[in-house]
TrEMBL record:
SUPFAM superfamilies: Sensory domain-like (SSF103190). Gene3D superfamilies: PAS domain. It comes from the Bacteria. InterPro entries: Sensor-like_sf. It comes from Oryzihumus leptocrescens. Pfam families: MCP-like_PDC_1. This is Cache domain-containing protein.
Length: 262
C-alpha cells in the first residue's frame, strides 16, 4: 500500500522556535503511526479469516479476539476496533460488522450489534460514510474526524481505517476509534512547542485541538483560505505544516480566531 503524501517540514539538529510547528506536527504523526501499527495484527487476522473461513463465524473466531486485545491496550486508548465488511464480502451475509467497543480504554469489550438487513428500518449503509468510503476509493489508510460518532461513542471521535482486500477485490476495512479528549490531553504538550495561536486542523477545516483563543474542537474554519495553504500558497498571517500523509495539518497564526465558525 502506498502511503505517499505531504511530508513534515525538515528540522535541523539545533532546535529553535521556528522548528516548533514541525516538532508538533511530527508528534501527531508519530501518535497516529502507533495506531496504524496497532491495526496491523487486526488486518492480518482479517485476511486469514477471509482466506480460511469467510463467514460471520470465521470473523468471530479469528478477528474478534484480536479486536478485543486491541481494546485492552490502554496506551493506545482505543474504544472501538474491528472489521467492517464490504457488501457480499462474506459468504453467508451481504453486510457485516465484526466491531467491538468499550466505554473507556481497557473496559470490558462488547460487540456492536447493528441492523445488517438492508430491508430493516434501522439499516444504515456504512459504505457511504467517510471512514469506509475514503479507504475503499483510494486504497490507502485514512483518519476520519473529528466527528460526533452517533453509532458508537456519542462523542467527538477519530476513526482510523485501513482497507483489506481478498483476491484483489475490496473486502472491507479494519479500524479503531479513539476519543478526541484523549488526543487533547497529549496535544496540549505538542502545542506548547509552538509560539502563537495554533490548531491541528483537518483538510476539511475541522479543528482537532487548538491553543487559539475561542477556537475549540469541532469548530469549522470556514472563512480561512485553508485550501490555498494545502496547495502551498503563501497566506499572510497563517502558516501550515502538514502532518505527514495524514489528513491533518498544524495551522499557526493570529488569523485563526477570525476563521472560526461553529
Amino acid at each position: 500500500m502506498s502511503l505517499a503524501g505531504p511530508t513534515v517540514e525538515t528540522m535541523s539538529l539545533a532546535p529553535t522556535a521556528a522548528h516548533g510547528p514541525a516538532r508538533a506536527a511530527g508528534a501527531l504523526l508519530a501518535w497516529a503511526e502507533d495506531h496504524f501499527t496497532g491495526l496491523a495484527p487486526l488486518q492480518a487476522a482479517t485476511r486469514r479469516a477471509l482466506a480460511e473461513e469467510p463467514t460471520t463465524a470465521g470473523m468471530a473466531r479469528l478477528v474478534a479476539p484480536v479486536a478485543t486485545r486491541l481494546l485492552a491496550d490502554t496506551e493506545l486508548a482505543v474504544v472501538g476496533a474491528g472489521f467492517v465488511a464490504a457488501p457480499a464480502a462474506l459468504d453467508d451475509t451481504a453486510y457485516w460488522l465484526e466491531w467491538w467497543t468499550a466505554d473507556e480504554p481497557g473496559d470490558a469489550p462488547q460487540r456492536l450489534v447493528v441492523e445488517t438487513d438492508p430491508a430493516g428500518d434501522t439499516f444504515r449503509d456504512w459504505t457511504t460514510l467517510p471512514w469506509f468510503a475514503v479507504p475503499a476509493t483510494t486504497g490507502r489508510r485514512h483518519i476520519t474526524g473529528p466527528y460526533v460518532d452517533y453509532l458508537c461513542t456519542d462523542e467527538y471521535t477519530l476513526t482510523f481505517t485501513v482497507p483489506v482486500h481478498r483476491d484483489e477485490a475490496l473486502a472491507g476495512v479494519v479500524g479503531c476509534d479513539v476519543y478526541v479528549r484523549h488526543v487533547e490531553q497529549l496535544a496540549e504538550g505538542w502545542l506548547d512547542l509552538v509560539e502563537g495561536p495554533a490548531a491541528f486542523v483537518s483538510r476539511e477545516g475541522r479543528v482537532l485541538v487548538s491553543s487559539a483563543p475561542g477556537v475549540v474542537t469541532g469548530d469549522l474554519l470556514r472563512s480561512l483560505p485553508l485550501a490555498r495553504l494545502w496547495e502551498g500558497a503563501t497566506v499572510p498571517g497563517l502558516h501550515l505544516t502538514a502532518c505527514g500523509d495524514l489528513p491533518f495539518g498544524l495551522v499557526v497564526g493570529e488569523a485563526l480566531a477570525a476563521g472560526r465558525r461553529p
